[in-house]
Design brief:
The longest helix has 37 residues. The protein is 64% helix and 7% strand. By secondary structure, the protein is of the alpha/beta class. The chain starts with a helix and ends with a helix. About 5% of the residues have low confidence. Helix 3 crosses helix 7. It contains 29 helices and ten strands.
C-alpha cells in the first residue's frame, strides 16, 4: 500500500511539473502527460509499473470524454451529420485500409498481416482530437464537425475489428459473417435500449435529482449514468466509449446539459491525463532511436497520405477545400483504439512483437505531434494557398451555437432576477439568466426566457452564459459565503467585468469591494428609503422635496449614481417637468380599448405622453410610427409624468378619460 502511495505521489509531482513547464513554453498539456508516462514507465526511470487496473481506470477518461462529447450533439443533429459519419467516415476507413494493405502486400507482407496493420492504422485518436477541439472551441466549426463525424464512424468500425481479429487467427474463418451479423444485431438492440432510457427515463431522474438541490447527488448521478451506459455497451461486446457517447447524446437536448458537462469535466480531465500517461509508458525510446529513420518515414507517409485521402473524400461530398484539409490534419495520427487492437493482434499472433513495438512508437509519436500541427493549421493552409486571412477564418464563430455579447448575466432567476429581466426587456438589453431550480427553469423556458440550468459557482456554467463577454453580472441571492465563491469564479474568467451584488445589509461591503465587486445594494437601506418616502408623502411633504432627499441619500451611498439624481433643481417648475417623467410598460390584453386603433387615433400627444417603444412578438420597435395599428399582446413603453401616464393607461385599457 505504501509503495502504491509513493508511486501515485511521484506521478502527480511529475505531471504537475511537466504540465506547468509545457504550458510555459506554449505546448499543450497532452504532450506533458505523454512525457510523464515516458519518464515513469518501464522504458524510462521505471518507478511506475503498468497494470490492467491502471489501464482500465485510464480508459474511463475516454468514457467521460465521449459522454461530454455526446452532450454537444442530439439525435436530430446526428441525423443531419449522417452524410459525414457514414459517407465520409466509411470512405476514409475503407480507402485508407485498402491502400495501406496494398502497399504492405507489395512489400511481401502476408495477407492477414497486411490487413491487420492497415486496418488499425486507418483509425485516428478520438481522445486527442476531441480534447483539442473542446479546448479551442472549434467543436461546432465545420472542420470540427467533419473530424467528429469521421471519428464516430471509426469508433463504430472498431467493433467488427475486435470480432474479426480473433476469427482470422482461427482456421474457421467462415464464422466471420455470422459473428458480424450477431454483433450488429446486439449493437442495434443496445442503441435502441439506450435511446429509450435516455428519452423517457433520464430526464425524469435528473428532474427529481435537481429538485433535491444537492450538488453531490447531481454529480454522483452524472457519473452513474455515464458508467452505466458504458458498462451496458461493454456487456454487449461493444465499445464503452460508444455507450457513453449515446447516453450523452440522449441528454444533449435536456435543460441540464450545461450542468452535466460541468460536473463531469474534473473527472474527465484527470482521467484523460492518466490515459495519456499510460500511452507514454508504452513508448520504448531506445527502440525509437534504433529505428528512427523507418519511424520518421512511416510518420511522413502517414501524415501526407491520410490528409490526402480525407481531403479528397471530403471534397467529393461537397465540402470546402480548406475545411477538408484542416480535418485531414486533425485525423492523420493513429488512435488510442489502435493500441487495443495492437495488443489483441499480438495476442493472436497476427503481428510480431517487433511490428507491435514499431506500431506503438508510430502511434505515440503521431499523437504527440498532432497538437502542434493542429495549432499551426491556419499557417499551413495559408502556405498552401487555401486561406488568405487565417485569423479571421479561424476565429469565426459557429452559427449553430448561441453567442452572447455585451449582455447582462443574471445569477438567480427568482423574483428579483425576474424583476430585473422585466426592466431590461423594454430597453432592448440582452440578458441570460442562470438558475438551479428545475421547476422555475421549466416555467421560464416555456415563457421564452433566455435561461440555462446550472450552479453559478462553477466556471463552466459561467462560460456557457458568456460572462467573459458580458457588460454586467448581477448576483441576486443574499448568501454572503456563496457570493464570495461566485465572485471569485467570475473574476477568474472575466477580471474586468462589472459585478452588482444584492445583500441584506452593508456589513460585508468592504470585503466584497476587495473581492472586486463593483457595487453592493443592501436591502435594508432600500427598504428604509422606500418606507421613509411613503411616510413623508403621507405626512404632507411635497414630492419634489422627498425625491431630493432620497436622491441625496442614494448619491452618498452609490458611487455609480452620482450625477443621475440632480435633486437640487427640482424646486423649479421647468426642472420638475423634465426630471419627473418616467418610463412605464403596459401590455394590451385582448379586449383593451386601444386594440385595433392606430396610435394617431388615440391622440396621446395631446395628453403629453409619448410611445417610446413597442414590443410585438419578441421584436422591438423603437419610436413606432403614428400609423401603427396596435394589436392584442403588444407591449407599449410610455414616457411622461406619473399622473399623466396613469390616466393614459386607464384610457388605453378601458377607454376612460
Amino acid at each position: 500500500m505504501q509503495n502504491v502511495l509513493i508511486q501515485a505521489f511521484g506521478l502527480l509531482v511529475a505531471a504537475v511539473i511537466f504540465v506547468w513547464f509545457f504550458k510555459r513554453i506554449g505546448l499543450p498539456p497532452i504532450l506533458a502527460y505523454l512525457a510523464t508516462g515516458l519518464l515513469a514507465g518501464s522504458h524510462g526511470i521505471g518507478w511506475m509499473a503498468q497494470s490492467h487496473e491502471m489501464h482500465f481506470v485510464a480508459e474511463l477518461g475516454i468514457v467521460f470524454l465521449l459522454f461530454s462529447l455526446g452532450l454537444e450533439f442530439s439525435v436530430p443533429r446526428l441525423m443531419a451529420m449522417r452524410n459525414i459519419v457514414f459517407g465520409l467516415g466509411s470512405l476514409q476507413v475503407v480507402i485508407t485500409s485498402l491502400v495501406f494493405m496494398l502497399i504492405l502486400l507489395l512489400l511481401e507482407y502476408s495477407l492477414l498481416n497486411s490487413f491487420t496493420i492497415a486496418s488499425l492504422m486507418a483509425l485516428s485518436s478520438t481522445a486527442v482530437v476531441v480534447k483539442l477541439l473542446k479546448e479551442s472551441g472549434e467543436l461546432n466549426q465545420r472542420r470540427g464537425q467533419l473530424a467528429i463525424g469521421v471519428l464516430l464512424f471509426q469508433d463504430i468500425a472498431v467493433v467488427p475489428l475486435l470480432i474479426i481479429y480473433p476469427l482470422l487467427a482461427q482456421s474457421g474463418s467462415d464464422e466471420i459473417v455470422g459473428a458480424l451479423a450477431f454483433a450488429l444485431t446486439k449493437g442495434a438492440f443496445v442503441c435502441i435500449l439506450l435511446w429509450a432510457i435516455g428519452k423517457w427515463v433520464l430526464p425524469k431522474v435528473f428532474r427529481e435529482i435537481a429538485l433535491v438541490r444537492t450538488d453531490e447527488l447531481f454529480v454522483l448521478t452524472t457519473l452513474l449514468v455515464a458508467l452505466f451506459a458504458a458498462g451496458l455497451t461493454y456487456l454487449f461486446g461493444l465499445s464503452m466509449a460508444l455507450g457513453a457517447f449515446l447516453a450523452g447524446m440522449m441528454l444533449g437536448e435536456s435543460q441540464y446539459r450545461h450542468q452535466l458537462e460541468a460536473d463531469i469535466r474534473p473527472f474527465r480531465d484527470i482521467l484523460m491525463g492518466l490515459f495519456f500517461v499510460t500511452v507514454g509508458m508504452q513508448l520504448d525510446i531506445l527502440y525509437v532511436l534504433q529505428s528512427w529513420y523507418w519511424i520518421i518515414a512511416v510518420l511522413v507517409g502517414l501524415l501526407f497520405f491520410k490528409i490526402a485521402v480525407l481531403a479528397i473524400s471530403a471534397q467529393l461530398i461537397g465540402e470546402r477545400k480548406q475545411d477538408a484539409v484542416a480535418a485531414g490534419i486533425m485525423l492523420w495520427q493513429m488512435g488510442e483504439f489502435g493500441f487495443v487492437l495492437i495488443a489483441l493482434a499480438s495476442q493472436h499472433l497476427l503481428i510480431s512483437s517487433e511490428q507491435a513495438s514499431f506500431l506503438i512508437a508510430v502511434g505515440v509519436l503521431s499523437m504527440a505531434l498532432t497538437p502542434y500541427l493542429i495549432e499551426k493549421t491556419p499557417v499551413l493552409l495559408k502556405r498552401l494557398g487555401l486561406l488568405s486571412q487565417p485569423g479571421q477564418y479561424w476565429q469565426q464563430p459557429a452559427n449553430s451555437s448561441p453567442l452572447y455579447h455585451n449582455h447582462v448575466v443574471i445569477c438567480g432567476f427568482s423574483r428579483v432576477g425576474q424583476t430585473i429581466a422585466r426592466f431590461l426587456k423594454p430597453e432592448a438589453i440582452d440578458y441570460v439568466a442562470i438558475e438551479s431550480n428545475p421547476i422555475l427553469l421549466q416555467e421560464a423556458k416555456a415563457a421564452g426566457e433566455p435561461i440555462i440550468f446550472g450552479h453559478v459557482k462553477q466556471k463552466d456554467i459561467l462560460k456557457s452564459a458568456g460572462v467573459e463577454r458580458a457588460r454586467l453580472v448581477i448576483i441576486t441571492f443574499t448568501d454572503f459565503e456563496q457570493t464570495q465563491v461566485v465572485v471569485d469564479a467570475i473574476k477568474q474568467i472575466a477580471p474586468t467585468v462589472k459585478i452588482l451584488v444584492r445583500m441584506r445589509d452593508d456589513s460585508q461591503l468592504e470585503t466584497l469591494k476587495e473581492l472586486g465587486v463593483t457595487e453592493v445594494v443592501p436591502e435594508t437601506l432600500e427598504a428604509s428609503l422606500m418606507l421613509v418616502s411613503h411616510v413623508l408623502y403621507m405626512s404632507g411633504v411635497p414630492m419634489t422635496r422627498i425625491i431630493r432627499r432620497v436622491s441625496k441619500e442614494r448619491r452618498n451611498r452609490y458611487q455609480f449614481l452620482n450625477g443621475f439624481f440632480t435633486g437640487d433643481k427640482l424646486d423649479s417648475e421647468e426642472s420638475s417637468s423634465d426630471r419627473l417623467e418616467y418610463l412605464h410598460v403596459i401590455a394590451l390584453p385582448e379586449h383593451a380599448f386601444a386594440v385595433n386603433h392606430m396610435i394617431s387615433e388615440l391622440k396621446l400627444e395631446q395628453r403629453r405622453v409619448s410611445v417610446r417603444a413597442l414590443r410585438r412578438q419578441d421584436r422591438e420597435i423603437e419610436s413606432p410610427s403614428e400609423q401603427t395599428v396596435l394589436l392584442a399582446g403588444d407591449i407599449l413603453v410610455l414616457q411622461g409624468k406619473p399622473r399623466r401616464v396613469e390616466r393614459v393607461e386607464r384610457f388605453l385599457l378601458d377607454g376612460l378619460e
